[in-house]
Amino acid sequence: MRSWSNMIERQPIATKMLQQMLVRKRVSHAYLIQGDKGTGKEAIGYLLAKSLFCKQIDNSEPCNQCHDCKRIDSGNHPDVHWIRPDGASIKKDQIAHLQKEFTYTGMESNQKVYLIYHADLMTTNAANRLLKFLEEPSRKTTAILMTENNQAILDTIKSRCQILTLKPLSPQSVQQLLEADGVSRENARLFSVVMPNLEQAMKLDQDEWFAQARSLMVQLIGILQSNWDETLFFIQKQWMTHFSDRDKLNLGLDLLTYWFKDLIYLQLDQQESLVYQSYLTELEKATWHWSRQDIVTILALILEAKKQLTQNVHPTLVMEKLVLQMQR
């Protein structure tokens, strides 16, 4: 993201707040930007730094063309310092080096910005050292901390920061990011609706358990359509072996939900909305087996099964009852 106008589409609330602060020249001395992977924390950090240094800023928008903007983009601005984990953590020495750097006068102005990526990975000593730094902020110093795990940040640090919480990515945004990362369009579509969290969705592309889960779901649909007398045996011997706990079974029910939603999309001639696009032949066959009223009823039954899982009903009984009701 090279402009606030682009960022506002992904994070409207946080973007508007920062733009207003920039226009009114009321920038805080410290920000904590929290949000899931892919929500735009790093992009906001870059934009905020450029907005503070750009000499051709228009309202709140950095020009992206001046010497300052280009050096920030390349990571070579002398008064903008990035701190990233050194291995598995951010260490005390890294914060100590930052403090030393900030004792010097700015190379080109009195403005200084430091950005800490994965601030939750600071060691205890590093976090305590940063806290002392935040307690005595320089007038022209801005700290930008970024985290995916707000709970791991010291409360004393959070109390000294203005907290910006980024909203989760929409399934459409997750799909676009997955495709940009090389995930096939169909898988990206499925992963984005099953796991709207980008990091979790990315893991599904390499997850053999999930691939088998999808295969079992399609097998179950086929058995329900043509070999209903084998359904309970399939549930007991294959389905429950794979979906072996409540969380896994809940995901299996989600996969079934998206299948029956796809049947509705097909009946409404909205093929572009399908999740299981590579199973078009199987979906079309299923539309001949279940009427729209059947599908609506089954979706309600699946929702009730998910509710029963939260009420400590035995998972096998939940699935057996569901498939028996789906056959009626």
Automatic annotation (TrEMBL):
It holds the Pfam family DNA_pol3_delta2. This is DNA polymerase III subunit delta. Transmembrane segments: none annotated. It comes from Amphibacillus indicireducens. NCBIfam families: holB (TIGR00678), PRK08058.1 (NF005972). Coiled coil: none annotated. The gene is holB. SUPFAM superfamilies: P-loop containing nucleoside triphosphate hydrolases.
